[in-house]
């Protein structure tokens, strides 16, 4: 169950990163509210997952999901630039997430 909560927390990190971008520096109300609510739920789920997962594993997986997800949303939704080196970097983050999951005792 901790892994499911951690995954959901990572997805919410993607939501708040995207909505923060859409908030234009917290000058737009709706995206600003979405950002804050998604942050709160993301942190709460991360905290619950950390009850049974090691700190390093939980935090690395959470930030990795957020980083790779934000990169994907930036490219696919916002039209941000992508090149082979940036894609390779994202794949290395995914590889790190997989290794953390596989090597975790929980």
Automatic annotation (TrEMBL):
<dbReference type="GO" id="GO:0005886">
    <property type="term" value="C:plasma membrane"/>
</dbReference>
<feature type="transmembrane region" description="Helical">
    <location>
        <begin position="84"/>
        <end position="102"/>
    </location>
</feature>
<dbReference type="GO" id="GO:0022857">
    <property type="term" value="F:transmembrane transporter activity"/>
</dbReference>
<protein>
    <recommendedName>
        <fullName>Guanidinium exporter</fullName>
    </recommendedName>
</protein>
<comment type="similarity">
    <text>Belongs to the drug/metabolite transporter (DMT) superfamily. Small multidrug resistance (SMR) (TC 2.A.7.1) family. Gdx/SugE subfamily.</text>
</comment>
<dbReference type="Pfam" id="PF00893">
    <property type="entry name" value="Multi_Drug_Res"/>
</dbReference>
<dbReference type="GO" id="GO:1990961">
    <property type="term" value="P:xenobiotic detoxification by transmembrane export across the plasma membrane"/>
</dbReference>
<keyword id="KW-1003">Cell membrane</keyword>
<dbReference type="InterPro" id="IPR000390">
    <property type="entry name" value="Small_drug/metabolite_transptr"/>
</dbReference>
<feature type="transmembrane region" description="Helical">
    <location>
        <begin position="57"/>
        <end position="78"/>
    </location>
</feature>
<keyword id="KW-0472">Membrane</keyword>
<keyword id="KW-1133">Transmembrane helix</keyword>
<keyword id="KW-0812">Transmembrane</keyword>
<dbReference type="InterPro" id="IPR045324">
    <property type="entry name" value="Small_multidrug_res"/>
</dbReference>
<keyword id="KW-0813">Transport</keyword>
<feature type="transmembrane region" description="Helical">
    <location>
        <begin position="33"/>
        <end position="50"/>
    </location>
</feature>
<dbReference type="InterPro" id="IPR037185">
    <property type="entry name" value="EmrE-like"/>
</dbReference>
């Amino acid at each position: 169950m901790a892994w499911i909560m951690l995954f959901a927390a990572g997805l919410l990190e993607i939501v708040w990163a995207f909505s923060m971008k859409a908030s234009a520096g917290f000058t737009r109300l709706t995206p600003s509210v979405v950002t804050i609510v998604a942050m709160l739920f993301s942190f709460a789920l991360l905290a619950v997952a950390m009850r049974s997962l090691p700190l390093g594993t939980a935090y690395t997986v959470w930030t990795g999901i957020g980083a790779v997800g934000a990169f994907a949303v930036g490219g696919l939704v916002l039209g941000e630039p992508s090149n082979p080196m940036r894609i390779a970097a994202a794949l290395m983050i995914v590889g790190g997430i997989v290794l953390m999951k596989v090597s975790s005792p929980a």
